[in-house]
Amino acid sequence: MEKSSDPLLHNLILFNPTLCTKEGQEQEKILFYFARDETSEDAMVRQVGLCEGMINFTQRFSNNTCEALETKNTRQVYYGPEPDFWMVLTVRLPEKGCKFVSNLTLRATLITSYNLFKLFYGPFSVLMSKVEDIATFRSKLKKFFGPYRTTLKIGENGILDHVCGVQYLPIDPNTYLCCQRFLNSLRDQFSPVLYTVLLFKEKLIYSGLNKHDTQVLYYYLINILFPAHLETSGMEVISKSLQTLGRYLNGPDNFDDNIKASRLHLTTDSKDNQLTQVFLLVYNNQDTTICLMIDATKSCTKTFYKTLNSCLTANIPTLDHIVSKQVAPKASSSSVAQYTPVNDNIRYLLYNYDNLAYISTLHCQPSVSATFTRIMCDIAADIRDKRDADIVVKTGSDIWISARKSKSRVLFAVVLQKSIHYISVVEDIRKLSLHLFNKAYFSEC
Amino acid sequence: TTLLYTIKFEQCEIVCVTCAMASSTGLLYLSENPIKFPPVTRTTPVFYDETNQEIFALDGDVVTVYSAKDGSEHSLTIDNAVNIISIKYSVDHSLLAVQRSNQSVDFLNLQEQTEFSQNSRKGSGNIIGFNWTCQNQIVFINHNGIEFYQVNGKQGKVRSIKAYSINVNWFVYSPQFCVLVVSSTLSGNVLHPFYFKTPQQGSTNINRLPKFQVELPPSTPTQRSQLHERQVSLLTLHGKLFLAVTKSPQHGQESYKTTEIGLYVLTTESNVNKVATLQLGITGRFAVNCVDNMIVVHHQNSKTSMLFDICWSSPAESNSVLNLTTTRTPAFKIPNFNLKQDGSITTFRPIMQPMAITQFLHDGAPCELYSSSWVVFQPGIIIDAKIGLLWELKMSVGKLSQHMVCSKPALIRLLLHRRSYKNTIFCTLRSLVMTQSSKLSVLGDIFDILNSVIDDVLVTQDEMLEEVFNPLLCRDEVDPNYKISLITEYIRSLRLHKLRISYFFYEIIVGLLVRCNQLFRLHQLVQFQVLGDSAPLACLLLSLEKSYQPAFLLGIDMLKRLKDTAGITDALLKKHDVTSALQYACSLNQEDSMESAKFLQSAVDSGDNVLFYTTYQFFVARNERLRKSPEFLPDEGVGEFVTLYKALFSEL
Lengths: 445, 652
Description:
Order of helices and strands of chain A: EEHEEEHHHHEEHEEEEHEEHEEEH
Number of strands of chain B: 32
Largest sheet of chain B: 5 strands, antiparallel
Distance between the termini of chain B: 111 Å
Helix content of chain A: 25-40%
Oligomer: heterodimer
Strand content of chain A: 25-35%
Distance between the termini of chain A: 43 Å
Shape of chain B: elongated
Number of helices of chain A: 9
Number of strands of chain A: 16
Radius of gyration of chain B: 38 Å
Radius of gyration of chain A: 24 Å
Shape of chain A: flat
């Protein structure tokens, strides 16, 4: 629910300046325009012109384009995903209450929305060249960004959003290899299956995609597909739960119908800038979810889908059983030890840019208030491009926040205990990092 | 079973062989160079001794001996050879035992040209036969008893060791085990085993084992069920002794449509038990051989042979259900008898369709196979007395894979029990991976079988690499994903069976993933610690930084787990990340012992003057703390850095 004290999405704009060839036809540049308030075309053109001017102006000073513009009441972020294509997102700050929005996370939201679009429709430029006219292109954009903008949770932009991270399931090597056996056999037996992704309880076990595609697909599954499915078929699932039958979240409902599967455009194994096109099947049984990416250049028969389906129904329950048996509290095979409360007063967030993994206890009760999250966002923006960093901040409310970056790993820690000395804060954090990194490198104090 | 011919042989018609001649040898074939001996006639009898595997061909008083062991032959003259009933050399060939009458056996000391003899005991009846056991000990089997003697060839004396009184119909003897089984009672189905041990001082080396009864088909009013000598053979399978009893249906008996062979296991420790039934599925005349620990049952009527393996079974395997498990498959030893311990009987069927032995050409003409003049002996001796040939039955293990209709893992389990399995297994596996004709999961199942055998030298990882994986890996046209999946399956199987994995498999998989740019997959493999930590692997990861930047941190992580602190410092310094290297060393409290020259050199090499300044100042501070002086020690070898520092920053 939107509260008046939350920052609100003011507009979301997509434009391409090269589409306007004649003066007076500036509205041609606009590809998509969402505005919270009723806006005349003139106002839209002016707004786009302003953004364009801002981008062009800042480009004179730096090779990097402008990323964000802050005004008293608004925050505006810019993103140019492809040559001549610009995306702009504006947030209006409320008059009272939360006055804070992190540009870093806001821009990350914009980038993610582009990545999701590209995953399903391909790059803007390719799509534009394929459709018969710009109007069709505009309607495709509207079809995607229209509903998508409602899923944006502007007020909740937390520190995690800019990471767009992945939670991995900590399992031992034998279980991991057992999953590999299943996935490799599946690929071996069904050659149109190009890639597989395996999740258990919304945590990633394996992805055959590259890092970028994994990140975007994981975001889609966790933030869009799974929640949507819970909403639409929640009651149904409960009534069927006794059967624990496998089902497709995305894919063939009924083998007599045409196979309904989303087409994806992957950067994995893309050649000469041609994205790899696949159909996405998402199959779920109990806690296990498997994504199968099927070569879109091959036409698969109903028999193929039926055989594939029988292979999934025959093996996924066993796999689910093996993995659930292994996911015991003490299991820890990832390079980072699992959270055990070393110190009840410390909440932390740990992420690794290399594999997108994150572990967070920020949500643990009593959780870290939004104020501190904002400070962390600011620090995150500061240390983003640094190789190593070590920052300790004492907040106005007498709480310590520490951020340390060592190579690709970042550890945020919030010490909730009030009125303690810097020395003991450092000692607490040293103990935490010793505990977390007993199997991995992390530069020490 | 000593005298080879009967008068029947001469009455046999010669069957015209019209079969098409096989161009290549099949699975079962006869040895290429059989022992040739004079064909049996009424006047030239031939004897075969199983213990020494020798043919004795008589022609008047001249005896010619042909050895099936080494192919040698020699002749000697014996008086009164016409009356010979049986003739056998002692194990060391110093004595020749000749039975010329029903009551006595004569011993010929060939070296000293002396002869002496031993009568059977009074009341023990006629001598049915005799066998040399060991060290010039001999056992007489008489109609009414068993007599065991020590023969002294030099003194020409025979000393009785032991005698048993027992009614004997016939007997069988296993030279490998020195086990004698005699048949008693009217039906002949009560069997008494005797075991002759290697003599030890002060103890009798004959062991009478508990008698046992062999089941017979029920008698009919016109015909009494009886156990005959020709129905029984002693077989050695994987070092165990079995008694095989062929049970044929009797005329007019509906309940026994087909013949089966009962297998009884003979041990010195426990009672004899029936453990298995071989179902032949047909009737007729049968003969039994053993080849490479398989039982070969020859069927004369159809001129085919059936193969049985009591270590093997072919379980029903599902097509779609994978064997997914994180617990190791039960380890087993070879031989892994598929027999039950609880006394119940396992039923076996032939492992494949009956087949004929490969045609044999003798003097350019095909021999009649499965001829009525064939006599078989253990383990794989086939003698055609009429044409005078002794063959050894052989099996071409490599041909098994062509004939077997079973799953590939079952084939591998069959091959594992063959004497020269290695090459065949490698051949089979190589052809499976090269043609990609088997599912990946099937290959995984095979790896699991090979890795669950308790035998260190069974199939080593080096051999697998050399014989199976390398031929595939070096073929560029093969999908690298297949190679990756295959090696991953092998690693999975090794891990599951807690075997130490050779580093080269990790190197291969890392190399393949890098080559096809599947770096995120590589990252996951290291992250989930599938690739075991080792110094070479850590170095490999560090070296991958150019193609995959995060590999560096993976390598450092691994060094940390290996507790290789010097390795971490060196890796960081090699990257000119001097600050991290210093921080790391300090965190280990190694601040005071750090080699200043190494750090300063890396700082200089970085080309970053600020870094050099910082590093230099760090060590100056250390000098002051340690020695109350900013100066370096002469043996630190930092003279050039001091000069450089002064040149760069003297004005500061």
